[in-house]
Structure formats: structure tokens, C-alpha cells
Specification:
two-stranded parallel sheet; mainly alpha; single chain; two-stranded antiparallel ribbon
């Protein structure tokens, strides 16, 4: 198009054409839906796609397409998550400003360059075929990362100068996946839905009392007492909410509860992503001392009662049995190492 546009002999062509830029998708979960649709229409073996696989593939693709933010307080990964709608009210991330700055910085507009969904879709299909030939009935992010790394330089539209940058992006995605896998393993080891709800209700009772400058009735003695600031902070610190932002976070959660009430929805801490994550992490801190971490790194079989229960819990999260064993070996070792060092 550029060649023809600059050719004086193509005057008739230029008079009758107008360039319309149509960028790649920049929200990685929407990108994952593209891969899901491609898989549904592709002639590939039926395998179990493990949790996070398509999302991490989408995240890698998006990182190659978006511009590095000018704002030093916002990293590239944070920007990708913001484009995906993962912006907390307490975070100062202006998505509109990020888009405007990126369009000004990009040569032909943000999202017009980078790895295409077609390339990633092809690699997913190749990884599925390879897994099938190896007798594996599942596809995990770890397998897909290997295919990206091995075949990236075969992508004809990627310049040699971009390879190093893209490999660095792939490492960032690996780290993001590791964090999510660790969360899944911790969930399998310690999650208790009833305890999450009890802790969530307690947190909200104390938050509302704090905001209204009121007291809370003690569950055991029935006496009125001040909101338990130690308990409140023990939850908030799991999300790295600093002391000077605690009021913002508490008001954010309170507003969410109020909106739910107006819509006729009952309070359930599992429906609020940030609150659920904080409560899960607090529950982990409370229960981890009773976990046999040596079993996570033992070389024995995975079919004993204790480890079998963990695998069952991972299966409930969407993993296949073999995929659960893989993530337990991968992330479980990281969890065990960190806790045993502590």
C-alpha cells in the first residue's frame, strides 16, 4: 500500500482508495476467545486445554502489539491488564490516556504491528499435535511456551531486531503464569469456601463499622467493640494495599456491596475478585502451617491420599488429572520451597 501510495503513476488508484486501519485485539482475554474459536473449527485432536493456556497465549500476543507506556509508574504488563479491564478503582491507571499516548508514539497506530493471532493459533495447533503424538491428552501453558520459543524466529513477518524483545516478553508471561499457577496450587491446598465466606462477612462488618464510625458486636461475648483494625489490615496487606490507601480500598468494597444490594444480590466475597483474592491469601497464611510441604517435592507417586486430594481440588478448578499433576509439580515445588525457606 505504501509503495503504491508513493507511486505517481498510481494516481487513479490513490484517488479511489482510502486506508482504514484495523488493529489487532489488545485485550488478552478477547484474544483467547479467538483461539478458542479457531480450535473449534480446526481439524486437530481433542485434547484438554488446561487453565490459563489460551489466556497466556493471548497475553503474549498483546504484549508484542502494545506500546511501552510513557508513564514510568505503569509497566507494560500492568498496561496489558488495564486494556483487559483489570483496573482497580484504587489504582491510578488512566486507560484512555494510555491509548492516546500509544497512538501518538506508534508509527501507524497501536495494535497494527506485533504477532498475529494466526501465528499463535498455528502454534497452538502444532502443540496439540505434538502432545497427541507423545501420548499426552492435554495442552498446558508450559508446552505452549516451548513452542513459541522454538518457532518464533520462523515467523516471517517478525524482524530480527524484535526477537530479543519478544523473548523478553515471553519471559514476562512465564512469570505471570507461574504466579497464577502458584495461586491455583495454594487454592488446592488450603481453600475452604465456608471459611472464605465467614472471613468475608467479618471483614465487611468491620469495614462498615469503620466507615460509619460505629461499633461491632462481638460474635462470642455479644459486647460492642471498635472495628478490628489488625484484622482489616491483615486482609488488605495481602493485596499490598498501603496504609495511606486503606480508606480508598474499604470505600471501594463498600460501594460494591451497596451496588449489589440495590440489584437485589446477596453479599458473597467470592464475587469480588480483589476481596476474594485477599481472603484466599489470608486463609493460606492461616492454614499453611498445617500443610506437609515435603509431600509437594517428594519423588514418590501422586496417588497417596494427601496428594490425591490436592489433585482432586485442582481438577475442580478445571485441570485434567495429568495437567493437575504437572502444575502441582511445577508450582508446588515453588510453593514448598518458599514456605520451607521461611
Amino acid at each position: 500500500y505504501k509503495d503504491k501510495k508513493g507511486d505517481e503513476k498510481m494516481e487513479a488508484f490513490n484517488d479511489r482508495t482510502k486506508r482504514i486501519d484495523f488493529p489487532y485485539v489488545l485485550a488478552y482475554e478477547e484474544e483467547a476467545e479467538i483461539y478458542q474459536k479457531l480450535l473449534g473449527n480446526a481439524d486437530v485432536p481433542d485434547v484438554h486445554v488446561e487453565p490459563h493456556t489460551l489466556e497466556m497465549a493471548g497475553l503474549f500476543g498483546v504484549l508484542t502489539r502494545i506500546e511501552e507506556p510513557d508513564d514510568e509508574t505503569v509497566g507494560l504488563m500492568q498496561k496489558a491488564k488495564a486494556y483487559n479491564g483489570e483496573v482497580d478503582e484504587a489504582e491510578e491507571v488512566d486507560v484512555r490516556k494510555l491509548r492516546e499516548e500509544a497512538d501518538q508514539a506508534a508509527e501507524i497506530g497501536e495494535g497494527m504491528e506485533g504477532i498475529s493471532p494466526r501465528f499463535i493459533g498455528d502454534e497452538i495447533a502444532e502443540a496439540i499435535m505434538d502432545s497427541t503424538h507423545r501420548g499426552r491428552g492435554y495442552l498446558s501453558p508450559l508446552t505452549l511456551f516451548t513452542f513459541f520459543e522454538e518457532n518464533l524466529e520462523n515467523h516471517g513477518s517478525i524482524s530480527e531486531e524484535a526477537f530479543e524483545t519478544y523473548y523478553r516478553y515471553l519471559e514476562r508471561v512465564r512469570e505471570e503464569y507461574k504466579e497464577r499457577a502458584i495461586e491455583d496450587v495454594r487454592h488446592a491446598l488450603a481453600y475452604d469456601v465456608d471459611e472464605i465466606r465467614r472471613q468475608g462477612e467479618k471483614y465487611m462488618d468491620h469495614v462498615m463499622a469503620y466507615i460509619d464510625d460505629d461499633t461491632v458486636e462481638d460474635e462470642i461475648t455479644g459486647r460492642e467493640s471498635e472495628p478490628d483494625e489488625t484484622f482489616l489490615r491483615s486482609v488488605e496487606e495481602k493485596l499490598d494495599v498501603p496504609e495511606d490507601r486503606k480508606d480508598d480500598f474499604r470505600q471501594e468494597v463498600s460501594n460494591w456491596v451497596s451496588r449489589r444490594a440495590r440489584e437485589g444480590e446477596a453479599f458473597n466475597p467470592e464475587d469480588n475478585e480483589r476481596l476474594r483474592r485477599a481472603l484466599e491469601r489470608k486463609l493460606w497464611e492461616d492454614k499453611k502451617h498445617n500443610i506437609n510441604f515435603s509431600a509437594l517435592v517428594s519423588s514418590g507417586e501422586l496417588d497417596d491420599d494427601e496428594r490425591g486430594g490436592w489433585i482432586d481440588a485442582l481438577i475442580e478448578q478445571g485441570y485434567s488429572e495429568d495437567g493437575a499433576k504437572e502444575v502441582l509439580e511445577f508450582a508446588g515445588a515453588e510453593v514448598a520451597k518458599a514456605e520451607m525457606e521461611d
